Amino acid sequence: MDIKPTHTIYANNLNEKIKKEELKKSLYAIFSQFGQILDIVAMKTLKMRGQAFVIFKEISSATNALRSMQGFPFYDKPMRLAYSKKDSDVIAKMKGTYQERTKEKKKKKKEPKKPKAVSAAPKGQGGGGRADDDGSKNPPNHILFLNNLPPETQEEMLNMLFNRFNGFKEVRLVPGRHDIAFVEFEGEQQASEAKSALQGFKISPSNAMKVTFAKK
Predict the structure, then answer these.
(1) pTM for the full model?
(2) Paired residues of 37 in beta bridges
(3) Element (H or E) spanning 181, and its range?
(4) What residues contact residue 112 under an 8 Å CB cut-off, 6+ apart?
(5) Please, where are the H alpha helices in the chain?
(6) Lowest mean pLDDT: which of 7-11, 47-51, 122-126, 147-151?
(7) Which of 16, 26, 109, 141 would you label with 192, given CA atoms 20 to 30 Å apart?
(8) Any idea what DSSP says for residue 125?
(9) Would you call 119 helix, strand, or coil by DSSP?
(10) Which burial class, exposed, middle or buried, applies to 173 when counting CB atoms under 10 A from its CB (0-12, 13-18, 19+)?
(11) Residue 209: what are its φ and ψ, rounded to 5°?
(12) CA angle 204, 209, 210 (to 5 degrees)
């Protein structure tokens, strides 16, 4: 099926047991590395279960995401990704091609401009742009220390982010602390590559993850 690239990725074969809010947060966490996300639409109706739409600001971001994440094991099921057949409402409004659907005269949830809140900081920069030296002088280590994680962070979410890198072994959460975690790799070089790639990665719109080498 030849559908031309669009801003919106249609994801299906998603785990239907995952709650809607958790699903949206996890999708944001793994897809925001490819570019600014304007919206994520997931519904729990019978017809739409196990499916979601991820709407990017740029088509190039959607293209990279689709190529990189096709078949990605998301909550133990391989994701199936495709371009959406038509622009989502939020993109149509940006292009000026939006037409109100007759049935949907009521105000849409998407109308308040959310994009600004979601706007991703450039890679390697925290949300506030303040350099934080905690741990940045530590010598290379095969274990990474993560901090500034949001309260809803889960082991599964971090696993999905880090298991794409060679040498990944495990994620260790710290009991009683939601904001920090450790990630272990087989070697220092592999840990260093993951650290560079995910430094400042926004796990949520307001939390840019800080990644440093753990103290030896």
Answers:
(1) 0.54
(2) 56
(3) strand 177-185
(4) none
(5) 20-31, 59-69, 89-95, 115-118, 155-162, 188-198
(6) 122-126
(7) 26
(8) -
(9) coil
(10) middle
(11) -65, 135
(12) 165
Q: Can you read off the two tokens belonging to residue 203?
A: 């796990």
113 pLDDT above the threshold of 60: no
Residue keyed to tokens 């031309």: 4
* Strand pairing class (77-78; 143-147): unpaired
User: Which of 213, 147, 151 has its CA nearest to residue 181?
Assistant: 147
Q: Please tell me whether residue 32 adopts helix, strand or coil conformation.
A: helix
Give the integer Cα–Cα distance in Å for 140 and 34.
Answer: 27
The two three-digit tokens of residue 87, written as one number: 């622009």
Distance of CA 21 to CAs 30, 34, 100, Å?
A: 15, 21, 27
What are the structure tokens assigned to 210, written together? 């800080």
What lies within 8 Å, CB to CB, of 61 at 6+ separation is 34, 35, 36
